[in-house]
């Protein structure tokens, strides 16, 4: 399974738990860190944790390795390292503060319209 397919699983899992403003950045030409960043937010630490749990469950069901999970205790910013895909799930105000989309503004956005239910 390639990194774009993994990103698609992540997006669908996050969307199923009602994550807000899901964005996928194509990092392939701007960073060696990962191929894709998936960024989403939620209104509470409980929802952030629920989204992270669903992402982990869905990728593990597809035999994708979860290398590490950081921030799960606080639920303000959970980072899930899937190797070539890095998932950031924030509480809204934390996402606004760190503004990863602006920090990585050189990374093109991936069109995910066909990945989520409208």
Automatic annotation (TrEMBL):
InterPro entries: Iojap/RsfS/C7orf30 (IPR004394), NT_sf (IPR043519)
SUPFAM superfamilies, A to Z: Nucleotidyltransferase (SSF81301)
GO CC annotation: cytoplasm
Keyword terms of this UniProt record: Cytoplasm, Repressor, Translation regulation
Recorded GO MF terms: ribosomal large subunit binding
Quaternary data: Interacts with ribosomal protein uL14 (rplN).
NCBIfam families given in the database record: rsfS_iojap_ybeB
Protein name: Ribosomal silencing factor RsfS
